[in-house]
Amino acid sequence: xxxxxxxxxxxxxxxxxxxxxxxxxxxxxxxxxxxxxxxxxxxxxxxxxxxxxxxxxxxxxxxxxxxxxxxxxxxxxxxxxxxxxxxxxxxxxxxxxxxxxxxxxxxxxx
Length: 110
What we know:
This protein has helices spanning 18-51, 57-79, 84-108. By secondary structure, the chain is an all-alpha fold.
């Protein structure tokens, strides 16, 4: 793989060979799938926070804010074509935060 990484996640260097091209396509497909998983987790967290009757008001609010902010942040990361590394950190951060709050809502409801 070449040492030069493009800033735009949708740009492939001109000197990319078959292996580089395969790596870029694989990484792009993986990132798109994980983006969809992260958005789904954020929306489920948002809905769970809004509909939970047994969670504390602070937990409900945190879950709804994290879910809404996560969806917006992931959308902005894609629309403004942030560098790949930052997109991966954003996807991971949203998934960890929203899944953690979602788990707290489920544990608190038992």
